[in-house]
Amino acid sequence: LCNEMVRTLVLLGLLYGICHGSRILVFYPGPSTSLLPSFSQLFQELARRGHQLTVVTAYKLRGLEDQNIKQLLMDHSTSHDEMKNIVDLPLLPHINFLWQMALTDCESLFQSVKFKEFSRANETYDLFIGSPFYFLECSIAVAHHLNLPVLNIYSNQLQIHATHLMGHDFPSSYVAGYDLHFSHKMNFWERSLNSIFCLGY
């Protein structure tokens, strides 16, 4: 009995160095090409340290050709040109465009053949990394369905639509909403408008 225990401990000690990596699902199937590439260094480092990453995205990320990184490309219904034109829209059409895009992209993603193949694969993961941008709130449902802990990453300034998904408060009477362009010293009417605007999200 003692001999078997020693053999088991030696075997576990030898295997420890190659068995400590986690399986991580990075889920960002949105059409925006500006958010996810800023985190590619993080993904490369995770892979270098022995973690296995599956990156679900709408476009191939350069620099992620590591053997521990698998990229799954999903289709999306919003064109790159539509995303470029969004910055020229006034405030309310801008927000309306984002919400319509969210609905359309999430519906088309979940109904796509590629996503159904991904979900039928029944692979298991240890962690979900996502980005709670406007049109990716539905991705949190994927993490919930897979029963994974969620790590939200966000490369933009704090915005009201993303704070609740990241577990942050958004004190709208003190912090101006990104889309309203108020200064950090708001007067009473600006604070009131900012609070009403933030409730609309």
From TrEMBL:
Superkingdom of origin organism: Eukaryota
Q: Which protein is depicted?
A: Uncharacterized protein
Q: Which organism is the protein's source?
A: Homalodisca liturata
